[in-house]
């Protein structure tokens, strides 16, 4: 028993739309006897006549009219599938799963990057989750994220690839009560007995080590009174009068008016904030995101 093949569908639709074997053969570029043979094969495979042949042309049987609707739909679906496959291969379709450090998501550099990516890839769905750096790195390695905007890549996942978005540093966050005189310390030793709100070292050991090393170099040991799980939490606790905290300088635009950020020379070391991804994979949507990132950073 013959099988219906793709060429049969194309030939049949061409004949039905042209209205005759001769015109159909001309439209698809084969000789008329070969086209007639292909149509007979199709009718044998279907098991019933699809065309009524006359000297003036052809007409469709009831079975032929039904088959034409299905054949046209199938050919269109195949064409659509082909186009979707090509667009997916170019990174123009699909999903991009990103992790973002919570305190960096509101920054202009991130929003500008996401806008640029949306402009070039409007049909890619963005799935964004606020996550700490170590959690992002683990999710990328498990294949649960395509990439992430994070810090401490060299510490938590040196085998992953990264493109720098910006360099940042830590500054002192302290309460600035309205109507009260504000006095900013110049040295960390002035805060020897002050309560500090510290980033949970179990959530980010690299963050913890980076800050402690700078404190150690100037002989300062912070008095840790509270622990927070992310930077927005630390800033909120400072605003509540719970103590001092070290937060990235880039958080300045999102800090409440009651929290003042003070840059200290003793906290001058900088760290990279990067888009991190697995360079061993070749995901088209990641390639498109990298293109948008480089255009944004170099603009």
Question: What does this molecule look like?
Answer:
This protein is α/β, with parallel strands linked by helices and 299 residues long. The protein has three domains: 6-89, Winged helix-like DNA-binding domain superfamily/Winged helix DNA-binding domain (Arc Repressor Mutant, subunit A); 94-166 and 272-298, Periplasmic binding protein-like II (D-Maltodextrin-Binding Protein, domain 2, 3-Layer(aba) Sandwich); 169-271, 3-Layer(aba) Sandwich (D-Maltodextrin-Binding Protein, domain 2). 42% of the residues lie in helices and 23% in strands. The protein has ten helices and eleven strands. It has helices at 6-18, 21-28, 32-46, 62-89, 108-120, 133-141, 153-156, 205-217, 231-239, 284-298; strands at residues 51-54, 57-60, 94-100, 124-130, 147-151, 161-175, 195-199, 223-228, 245-248, 259-262, 270-277. Strands 3, 4, 5, 6, 9, 10 and 11 form a seven-stranded mixed beta sheet that branches. A two-stranded antiparallel sheet has the order 1-2. Helix 1 (6-18) crosses helix 2 (21-28), helix 1 (6-18) packs across helix 3 (32-46) and helix 5 (108-120) crosses helix 10 (284-298). The protein is rod-shaped. The model has no long low-confidence stretch (mean pLDDT 93). Belongs to the LysR transcriptional regulatory family. Residues 4-61 form the HTH lysR-type domain. Residues 145-161 form the Rhodanese domain.
């Amino acid at each position: 028993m013959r099988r219906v093949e793709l060429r049969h569908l194309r030939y049949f639709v061409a004949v039905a739309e042209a209205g005759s074997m001769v015109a159909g053969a001309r439209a698809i570029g084969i000789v008329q006897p070969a086209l007639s043979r292909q149509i007979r094969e199709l009718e044998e495979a279907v098991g019933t006549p699809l065309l009524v042949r006359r000297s003036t042309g052809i007409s469709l049987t009831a079975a032929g009219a039904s088959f034409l609707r299905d054949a046209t739909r199938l050919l269109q679906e195949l064409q659509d599938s082909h186009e979707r496959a090509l667009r997916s291969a170019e990174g123009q379709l699909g999903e991009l799963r990103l992790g973002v450090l919570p305190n960096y998501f509101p920054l202009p550099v991130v929003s500008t990057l996401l806008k640029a990516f949306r402009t070039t890839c409007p049909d890619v769905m963005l799935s964004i989750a606020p996550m700490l750096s170590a959690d992002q790195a683990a999710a990328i390695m498990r294949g649960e994220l395509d990439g992430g905007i994070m810090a401490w890549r060299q510490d938590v996942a040196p085998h992953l690839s990264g493109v720098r978005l910006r360099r940042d540093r830590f500054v002192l966050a302290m309460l600035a009560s309205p109507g009260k005189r504000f006095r900013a310390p110049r040295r960390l030793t002035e805060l020897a007995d002050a309560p500090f709100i510290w980033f949970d070292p179990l959530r980010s050991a690299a963050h913890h080590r980076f800050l402690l090393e700078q404190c150690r170099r100037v002989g300062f040991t912070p008095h840790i009174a509270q622990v927070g799980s992310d930077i927005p939490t630390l800033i909120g606790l400072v605003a509540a009068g719970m103590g001092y905290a070290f937060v990235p300088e880039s958080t300045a635009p999102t800090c409440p008016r009651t929290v003042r950020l003070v840059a200290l020379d003793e906290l001058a070391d900088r760290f990279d904030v990067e888009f991190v991804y697995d360079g061993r994979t070749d995901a088209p949507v990641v390639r498109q995101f990298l293109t948008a990132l480089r255009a944004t950073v170099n603009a």
